[in-house]
Design brief:
Two copies of one chain form a homodimer. Chain A is α/β, with parallel strands linked by helices. Chain A has one domain: TIM Barrel. Chain A is built from 16 helices and nine strands. In chain A, strands 1-4-5-6-7-8-9 form a seven-stranded parallel beta sheet. Chain A is globular. The two termini of chain A are about 30 Å apart.
Amino acid sequence: MTTATKIKNDRILKALRCEATDRPPVWMMRQAGRYLPEYQAIRKQFSFLDLCKNPPKAAEVSVQPYEILGVDAIIMFSDILVPLEPMGSAVSFATGSPKFADPIRTPEQVDALKALDASELETSCSFVYETITEIKSRVKDEVPVLGFAGAPWTLASYMIEGGGSKDFAAIKTLSYQNPHAMHQLLQKLSDTIADYLILKLKHGADAVQLFDTWASMMTQEDYQEFALPYQQKIIAKIREKYPEASITLYVNGVANILDYMLQSGANCLSVDWRVNLAEVRSFVADRNIAIQGNFDPCKLLGTKQSVIDETKRMLELAGNEPGYIANLGHGILPMVPVENARAFIETIQANS
Amino acid sequence: MTTATKIKNDRILKALRCEATDRPPVWMMRQAGRYLPEYQAIRKQFSFLDLCKNPPKAAEVSVQPYEILGVDAIIMFSDILVPLEPMGSAVSFATGSPKFADPIRTPEQVDALKALDASELETSCSFVYETITEIKSRVKDEVPVLGFAGAPWTLASYMIEGGGSKDFAAIKTLSYQNPHAMHQLLQKLSDTIADYLILKLKHGADAVQLFDTWASMMTQEDYQEFALPYQQKIIAKIREKYPEASITLYVNGVANILDYMLQSGANCLSVDWRVNLAEVRSFVADRNIAIQGNFDPCKLLGTKQSVIDETKRMLELAGNEPGYIANLGHGILPMVPVENARAFIETIQANS
């Protein structure tokens, strides 16, 4: 985003603008991850958070899927929960899953959290921005680098539930018992995340993705009250600073909220496998909105031939109109065989 | 189902047939459960499975929500995993969640499972049918008694994953690597479950509900391959024996599969809170299909006033056409205050 430098492999940047490309660009959510032995080799030297906070090593694992699998974009290695620690809500990954020692449950705890401005973020999350710089210095202008952040509802769900959740009972309890406190929390997150992403663009990210992974777990009315307005605020604030910024919005489970996702201001919607890709593409046709997705990550656990067949099927449903980025519908799973990930990527790259 | 006896409170039976009622009938999925102190008092004397296998006590907890909250239907206390033990796949609830000591992962394990016919079920699951008889003898012809079962995909997910799952990676791995073995398993489950439900009707259940809770977690194509055909087989087999049987199909996350649920042969679709109830009702209008749902169980964790307001909102969306049964969109949670469950029920009962 920083420069007018032309990126050599600009397929994804074009697709995000709904411009024609020779073939669909492809990358995989969570592509710098445990399914790669090369990632595991580095990961075993560091805790997960220490790896996030080590720019040279974080850059190294970010670049791995590009070097090993030839994806069309590098997404920086990090975690959506990283900016919460300097806000006052520390998370640990010691057990493999995120865990908050002090889940946010009361208005007093919400009050105590600190929204961070750009200068505070540039200090407390300096490692994030250094990682981008480091990736850029490794890959030069070969391929785009993507930044990302969690959206307020999804971040709040981890902070309030204390980690992952099955039913989101704690965040909904706060939302329905004390909507005022909930909105305060979402506003603090929204202020922080907007600047967090602006700084990623400033430091060299070529595009960004906002993950509102769990926003689909509530009613459509609640989505409009607790998720959409904060997505809109973040996207609008980024566009004030970078009018041309490409912003992708991801939700896991979009079937009932595509209409509202369109209102977010994002220029690309990243969708899961439970929707018909052809229907989604036709839903956004003529709106200049790109679609990203939507391979079921579990399909990578089938046979190599089933991966090839299902990838071709996805491409057929995506059709040939510009504005399509091949990807998974959720992060790649640790037990995926690398050869299956490669079959997915290569089937897309052979499609022209 | 056994008799032509007129049930005094027949609201739900009428609504299931899309006939007019004075007000919408209401019950709550998992209504015989831990949110009730009266249930807990009995539950602490028995393990979960021992309570399922004790007809007088199972009948007692089944009747509690009718006596305490005045719901319009009694659903028998049991668990969808109960018929799997005599098939050869034993489950334990010792930790509070279902856990299979030997998850099904290979074709050999599928081969070893036994599909049960009616006479085997009547012996091995006698306690299930005795519970229905016991409930009937307690409530006479006052109120309908509902039976239920898990659908093949959902039962298979527990058997293969070994319990609950976040990503359903194990069942999908088997499905994509060895679809033949998967279909064998689903067929055995389907044969067993059809007879299991037929016997519930024979022993006095006035209607049944088929839970395919997790069938929404796959692609639409997979739903049509792995879920729909087995729902259809079960429902068709029941209707061969009991042409007038009322069969409700529940899935948690119906937004992308309503079309296919309609093809199941069920006369009532039980839907979750992430769809717009007015849209769903208008989707099935003129098809003689009833709709059940769709209150977010987490909404019962709000204030009493928020429960009342949201219940009224649900009723407005449901509209006044016949064929609507008020219910939750998933099972009631253990931490729900009884007074909030009562506010939900009473708000519906006041609506005429």
